[in-house]
Amino acid sequence: MGPPPQPGQQQSPFAMFGIMIPLLVIMYFVMIRPQQKKAKQHAEMLKTVKPGDKVVTSGGIIGVVLSVKEKGGVTIRSADAKFEITRTAIAEITERGNEKSES
Questions:
Q1: Helix, strand or coil, per DSSP, at residue 54
Q2: What is the pTM of this model?
Q3: Residue 6 pLDDT greater than 50, yes or no
Q4: What pLDDT is stored for residue 12 in this prediction?
Q5: DSSP per residue over 30-51, as a string?
Q6: Are 65 and 55 in contact (CB under 8 A)?
Q7: Per-residue pLDDT at 80
Q8: Does 75 fall in a domain?
Q9: Starting at the edge strand that comes first in sequence, how are the strands of the sheet with 90-95 ordered?
Q10: Numbers of helices and strands, H then E, in the chain
Q11: What CATH number is given to the structural domain containing 56?
């Protein structure tokens, strides 16, 4: 490397790239990768929704899944109301339905 830049001189563009690349790598591991991991976990959770599960929708409705359709529709019951929602509207499964064991 050459001598350090004097006041009033500009750094070379390569030095700027040397700073930017590590910052972009850090940003990927701190911001982007965790978001992708969370989205993948949510998609896996949506695949496992089944009748009897207690769910919370993204709108805040708490209900029990009555049926799951092939094309992503889910029917839930909340109090005295019955709703047809998309599977992606489910924010979380709070309780799994009763599973019958074969043993």
A1: strand
A2: 0.68
A3: yes
A4: 78
A5: IIIHHHHHHHHHHHHHHHT--T
A6: yes
A7: 93
A8: yes
A9: 81-86, 73-78, 62-68, 54-57, 90-95
A10: 2, 5
A11: 2.30.30
Does residue 41 have a pLDDT over 60? yes
Is residue 52 over pLDDT 80? yes
Q: Is position 81 within any domain?
A: yes
Sign of CA dihedral 64, 67, 68, 74: negative
- Write the DSSP symbol of residue 80: T
Single out the residue of 101, 1, 99, 103 nearest to residue 50, CA to CA.
99
Residue indicated by tokens 């972009």: 24
Give the whole-angstrom CA distance, residue 40 versus residue 36: 6
Give CA–CA dist 68/101, Å, rounded: 21
Total domain count, the chain:
1
Q: One-letter amino acid identity for 91?
A: A
